[in-house]
Amino acid sequence: MVEGLLAARRRYGPDGAAVFGGGGLTNEKSYLLGKFARLALGTRHIDYNGRFCMASAAAAGNAAFGVDRGLPFPVTDLADADAVLLAGANVAETMPPLMRHLVRPDLIVIDPRRTATAARAALHLQPAPGTDSALALGLLHLAVVDGEVDTTYVRERTHGFDAAWRRAVSWWPERVEEVTGVAVGDQRAAVRMLGAAKNAYVLTGRGVEQHSNGVDTVGAFINLSLALGLPGRAGSGFGCLTGQGNGQGGREHGQKSDQLPGYRSVVDQADREHVARVWGVAPDSLPGAGRSAYELLDSLGTADGPKALLVFGSNPVVSAPHARHVAERLAALDLLVVADFVPSETARMADVVLPVTQWAEEEGTVTNLEGRVLRRRRLRRSPRHVRTDLEVLRGLAVALGEPAERYPDDPREVFDELRRASRGGRADYSGISYDRLDSGAALHWPCPGSDHFGTPRMFLDGFAHSDGRARFVAVDHTPPGEEPDSEYPLHVTTGRVLAQYQSGAQTRRIAELNDAAPEAVVEVHPDTARRAGLRDDDLAVISSRRGKTLARVRVVATMRQDTVFLPFHFPDQHSANLVTNPALDPHSRIPEFKVGAARIGPCGEGAG
Ligand SMILES: Nc1nc2c(c(=O)[nH]1)N[C@H]1C(S)=C(S)[C@@H](COP(=O)(O)OP(=O)(O)OC[C@H]3O[C@@H](n4cnc5c(=O)[nH]c(N)nc54)[C@H](O)[C@@H]3O)O[C@H]1N2
Ligand SMILES: Nc1nc2c(c(=O)[nH]1)N[C@H]1C(S)=C(S)[C@@H](COP(=O)(O)OP(=O)(O)OC[C@H]3O[C@@H](n4cnc5c(=O)[nH]c(N)nc54)[C@H](O)[C@@H]3O)O[C@H]1N2
Ligand SMILES: [Mo]
Fold this sequence. Notes:
The chain is about 30% helix and about 15% strand. Helix 3 (about 55-65) packs across helix 12 (about 215-225). The chain is globular and about 65 Å long. It has three domains: about 1-50 and about 245-425, Rossmann fold, CATH 3.40.50; about 55-245, Dimethylsulfoxide Reductase, domain 2 (3-Layer(aba) Sandwich); about 490-600, Barwin-like endoglucanases, CATH 2.40.40.20. The chain has 22 helices and 24 strands. The two termini are about 35 Å apart. It is an alpha/beta fold.
């Protein structure tokens, strides 16, 4: 590995090597991985799978509120609300424990599918995939004309309403119905429910975030919540439901190509100076911003792309869009190193696999969806000679010529350094310690001092912009990257099912041991299936401009006729990402996992 990394550096410079991380890594690993990339490799190319997840919501939240923390309030607050709007989130399957906080509120669910979550809603709006920004603009339009706007709040706590309204003014309900398929009466009912609620929340999931207009779409929902006066008011609010075990912390400590620890900016001089001081290096020696996750993968092994890649905590061969192309790029590398504890599809392609310890075998912290830092404790010993990710990073760094003391491998020591690096930053962890967490304290960042009790509820006294006000963003609806046409007449959308987790490498390992492989399915409306010559349980081929994938038909009467749904948990010829569109949002570089043009048909004998 070291020879390969040094060769890449010699021939192509420090950017000849790159790092790909994951939001499942602990805070300590995320932090050390970012430091390793920028100091030991000296590369600007480090990014992670959060870019595939909620990067658009983070960008929209930062623009509107001055800082983004997925949920700026504890989940338990939801239980007392009168109404909750869930836009593109299927929490009954993806976060089942959250459902217990959603018993009392009236639920409004926006999802092209009638999910388990939608089935429990008081109102289900079922738009065509990729039309949410039109729907959100329409809901804002109705809130204004039906007199549901909190004008005092808008005047005292926000800026930019007029510009946002100028865009929404042309999204009258009939036009919105035509674009989205959501009936005018249902639009009105949603606004009435939110307007009548004394306390309400608007929450977004991947369904509205993973789009080539993801930032604008989330911005349109934030605008709606601001018009109703929800964010920063006790008992109400706006939030994004982050997904992975450390979906929050994973992005706050420097795995994202444009961020340094403490949610600092890699291009801000004061931010660079602070982090460089903690790391004991000159600010100028820190590299600048690198490529975003998909752009990084897309460039591997090309003339100006990295020739060596280290992967920690992701399985991009299955989870990245346009997966066949990504596999080709990985195959073009001089050196691929994968650290994992199961033989993932990406690990199977690697020149070197590092079999690291797994969560039950190590100490650390993660930050949950409400910004609360949780201790993860070791439950069992690891097999002998298996190293932790921290030990791997330290060993590699030293072999690359770095001083050992720069890479502590004791999680507590790493966390203490992370606290110093985050001090004064937007995500300030400096007051959070293992001792405080172990004594049972519930600490949400920002927590700027050892005597500070953390911040479970943000924005109550003001938003994080210098004038304390939130910003409406002037957004319009733009259509998705691909619309159905005669060749590819359907929308294909993707997501999750309850019984599978992520790219599935771990579930498959368990299934392998039990001799029971899970099978890929595609959800199809009965009429769509009939027209395509398909019956329930048939093997179907779903194709798009990127390629094709195979899945068993599940006929679902509540599907939209123009849409099929593929869970993304399956590998090889069953991967949903063989058909997904890698079109990127211009502001956040999140890919368009949630909509593309496709067709479906029977899979001929022996095909695939
Ligand atoms: N069981 C299970 N739970 C998980 C995971 C898992 O893999 N399995 N993964 C975790 C992770 S990393 C994440 S990020 C979260 C994700 O949690 P969710 O966001 O709830 O998950 P998804 O299924 O990706 O997307 C949610 C819904 O978006 C809908 N959708 C698709 N296209 C559109 C659209 O254009 N507009 C709208 N409004 N909705 C659309 C889909 O039909 C789907 O029901 O789940 C976490 N929890
Ligand atoms: N079509 C489509 N594609 C999607 C999505 C979608 O909705 N539709 N969702 C996207 C989203 S939201 C996400 S988050 C990604 C998730 O997809 P991936 O980024 O591939 O994440 P995982 O499948 O969780 O893979 C994590 C890998 O890291 C390993 N791992 C876990 N913990 C550790 C650790 O501590 N150290 C090391 N070294 N390895 C570890 C696991 O064993 C596993 O093999 O997929 C994205 N892809
Ligand atoms: Mo995610």
